[in-house]
Amino acid sequence: MYSAPRGNYSIKVKSLERTNYDSILYNNTIWIKGSEIEILGITSLWKHTKDDYKDVLYDLSIILRNKGDVPAYPYYAELIIDNTSYGTFCIRGSNDKIVQSGERKVLKLNFTEIREISPNFSHELKLILYDKYGQILDKYTQTRKMRPT
Q1: What is the pTM (predicted TM-score) of this model?
Q2: Distance CA 57, CA 82 (A)
Q3: Residue 3 C-alpha from the chain's centroid
Q4: How far apart are alpha carbons 140 and 105 in whole angstroms?
Q5: Is residue 120 very low, low, confident or very high in pLDDT (cuts 50, 70, 90)?
Q6: Going by C-beta distance under 8 Å and a sequence separation of 6 or more, which residues neighbour residue 110?
């Protein structure tokens, strides 16, 4: 669940025959660009509660693309709404959250709802996407205009 970092990699094929044991049959160096996750956008589902006059976030999906040459493994994301961090949330699923080279994918954050968001006519959403080991894969900011209900 960790992408190979960019760099040169040496490939060696060695013999297992008794007479030529450990002799190099093939040797080459390849360049790996690594994974390059790009957040293309986010979609969110909101509702305004009239009883306590708060906005509630029910769902958030991340639209991703991997421009790299190895798979990417997004694992969790920090969600910041109007400069307030609401914590980190894992990506839903297991194997389906792997983003292959050249692939576009939609992934969901794993939460039920986020309450107590101060009501506003628009919200600024910031998302920081991490791999399992805490390395930042990408950052994204979006302004979401609210519709009165």
Answers
A1: 0.82
A2: 13
A3: 12
A4: 16
A5: confident
A6: 89, 90, 91, 92
Is the sign of the CA dihedral 144, 80, 88, 129 positive or negative? Answer: positive
For the record, the structure tokens of 141 come out as 């900011």
- Strands (E) in 22-83, as ranges, are 24-32, 37-49, 54-66, 74-81
CA dihedral 122→117→46→109, nearest 10 degrees, is 110
- Predicted confidence (pLDDT) at residue 94 exceeds the cutoff of 70: no
- Which of the two residues, 112 and 38, has the higher pLDDT score? 38
Residue 42 is which amino acid? I
In whole angstroms, what separates CA 145 from the centre of its chain? 24
Residue range 92-103: mean pLDDT, rounded: 83
**Bridge partners of residue 9, in order along the sequence:** 30
Give the model's pLDDT for residue 54.
Answer: 82
Render pLDDT for 4-42 as a digit per residue (tens, 0 to 9).
788 999 999 999 998 889 899 999 999 999 999 999 999
In the structure encoding, which two tokens stand for residue 91, read together?
């990506």
Stretch (H or E) spanning 109 = none
The DSSP 8-state label assigned to residue 97 in this structure reads G
Tell me the C-alpha distance between 22 and 5, whole Å.
Answer: 28
